[in-house]
Amino acid sequence: MQSNTLYDVIGVGLGPFNLGLAALLDPVKEVNALFLEQKPEFAWHPGLLIENTTLQVPFLADLVTMADPTSPYSYLNYLRHQKRLYHFYFLEHFHVPRKEYSHYCQWVSKQLNSCQFGQQVIGFEFHQQKDPSQNYYEVCVRDTKSKEIELLRCKHLVLGIGTAPIIDERFQQFSDQDIFHSSLFLERQKRCQEAKKITVIGSGQSAAEVFLTLFQDQTNHSYELSWYTRSNGFFPMEYSKLGLEHFSPDYTRYFYSLSQEQKDERRSKQDLLYKGISASTIADIYDLYYERTIGGQSVPVTLQAMTTLESIEPRFDGTYELKLTHTEQEVSSTHQSDVVILSTGYASQVDLMLHPFGEYIQRDEKQRPIIQEDYQIATQGCQNNRIYIQNGELHSHGIGAPDLGLGAYRNSVIINSLLGSEVYPVQEKNVFQQFGTARVPSYI
């Protein structure tokens, strides 16, 4: 079925970033926007909505506040509608419970007519007309319930499909009840409670939260618990105030001004700015370990860094044998486990979505899409019909790409670019330090 509507923009995927864009576009009547998501409702990392975990950014990093504090879709307005303003006030926490952030996003999504769930985008096609101003994208959409196909048209696209869990192909052959990504942790928690030996692989915040949850529950289920990471240690994420200024529009603009070679070199040295563990989580783990070992008691727990998981082999008894290598000592060992939780990060799905556009997409020497400063992908042959990217620009805009605190800023830039005017003011100076020589961004 072909729709007669020509949308100004269609957003593909409804994670926090495209949901924030939909919220900020809601009062902009000049733009007819539609956002599509294949899931039946908004869902943000449901397998990691662990009790007592919070976002790693303040509540001001909601969908809209950093662009428009007066928006009806702010987190504070959500609290007001939930009759929880005083509860939050007395809580005196700057960081939002992760479970409540997810519920807040659901609350926003249900108010926006531009957001449609249960709609799977299965293809794109660019249509060129004799008059270039009449060019458009055709988006093929399948309703996940009725299975009906609809063809939608739009002038511009915004890709916000997010990331997918990374699991080494060598480990994908095993039962996902026993060996699974940390993103499925809550769905597999009962399986963990039934195990005799559990192993966590990884060094980031998710690995630490999964390990801590299992450690806290260990006395109820008596399993052995091990945590291995190939990183040099269980280190905290950089969280000093001047360190946090790297997650600002100012640093994003500075990073963008570097050559691609400089960007790649710089980013390779910034892991602890966005990949470490929160100091409070590390403290909770240490404190629990201390409490459990009072009086010389031993706990069946192993923590070991500088250790690489080389292979997993099934055993005759239904368990698994892990081959591990200590990278500094160059010593190999084996470890038996019933369950292996792989907290091995996430990968961008941008290339998957860009594949249908083929030669229209301009790429750098490493075949990554070239992304302009206003977050549109550089194209050839369809420059008047833009494709914007959400959280797929780590290589071009730096470590702030996946940060929730910069979502409203990026959406402001995208909206201003779409309309060719400053709908949402973008402030040039936001931090105390200066990252480079003064420069005026091209889109201001």
From TrEMBL:
Annotated protein name in UniProt: L-lysine N6-monooxygenase MbtG
Native source species: Baia soyae
Oxidoreductase found in the keyword field: yes
Tagged with keyword Nucleotide-binding: no
Pfam families, per database record: Lys_Orn_oxgnase
Catalytic reaction list: L-lysine + NADPH + O2 = N(6)-hydroxy-L-lysine + NADP(+) + H2O
Entry cofactors: FAD
Keyword annotations from UniProtKB, A to Z: FAD, Flavoprotein, NADP, Oxidoreductase
